[in-house]
From TrEMBL:
Segment forming the signal sequence: 1-22
Entry annotated with the keyword Signal: yes
UniProt protein name: Sel1 repeat family protein
InterPro entries referenced in this protein's UniProt entry, alphabetically: Sel1-like (IPR006597), TPR-like_helical_dom_sf (IPR011990)
Superkingdom assignment: Bacteria
Keyword annotations of the record: Signal
Organism name: Arenimonas soli
Length: 240
């Protein structure tokens, strides 16, 4: 696919999976790890984003919004961008361009080029009343979904999942191996690859995602194949 920067097309393509632009064997291994239920169960940002995208592609936009909002609570910028796009276009919700702008402003919080471009386009198309309303409702959304609070939620989830899976309070991997179901059978992954710090340390995890979005989400891009899950997504957990 070679999606062009317009409407939901590029957001849908790039939001489908982090590191979707993987080319090397190492990157392909990362994609297999990240598509596993074991990985997704500890990463609610990705789990809810993928579930939201699944519902969106099926045309179930109301349910997609529910899952995107859950992902957004864990600082998932692509999901926040999808919410902004849906409010702006009135997809599955009553059209609200001021609210759409605020969500896209949240999505642009880390200066991803795609989100910044959309945010500026939205602002330029708002009238004076829309801009005033956006400035009024913005602080309330930032108080719940901004990085200052949302990253802390995600950090707790990452730390809890790693500790419980490894059985160590400090998250020590030791000789742990992970068995991942694949379409061709099962694959055994060394624990050091599965528990690479860039997936579980909040600062490294965010930096890794930021690099991917800032490097690739400009203009026209090749996104490669959308990853397939080894099994259905886990049932949604109750939000904290």
């Amino acid at each position: 696919m070679r999606p062009i920067l317009s409407c939901c097309a590029l957001l849908l393509s790039l939001a489908a999976a982090p590191a979707a632009l993987a080319q090397s064997a190492d990157d392909a291994g990362e994609r297999r790890i990240m598509s596993s239920s074991a990985f997704l169960s500890g990463h609610p940002d990705l789990r809810y984003r993928l579930s939201g995208l699944d519902h969106f592609r099926k045309g179930d936009h109301e349910e997609a919004m529910v899952h995107f909002r859950r992902a957004a609570r864990y600082s998932d910028k692509p999901s926040q961008g999808m919410i902004g796009e849906m409010y702006w276009e009135g997809t599955g919700v009553a059209q609200d361009k001021a609210l759409g702008y605020v969500w896209m402003d949240l999505a642009a919080e880390r200066a991803y080029p795609l989100m910044l471009a959309k945010r500026e386009r939205y602002w330029n198309q708002l009238d004076a009343d829309g801009r005033a309303r956006a400035l009024e409702i913005g602080p309330q959304l930032y108080a719940e979904f901004g990085d200052d609070v949302a990253k802390k939620r995600l950090e707790r989830e990452l730390r809890f999942a790693k500790r419980n899976t490894t059985g160590s309070r400090v998250g020590s991997v030791g000789a742990l191996t992970i068995v991942i179901p694949t379409p061709g059978g099962t694959e055994v992954v060394d624990g050091t690859a599965f528990y690479d710090e860039k997936f579980w340390d909040i600062d490294q995890y965010v930096q890794w995602q930021d690099t991917d979005w800032k490097l690739h989400a400009e203009g026209t891009v090749d996104v490669g194949e959308i990853m397939s899950l080894d099994k259905p997504l886990p049932e949604d957990a109750q939000d904290d």
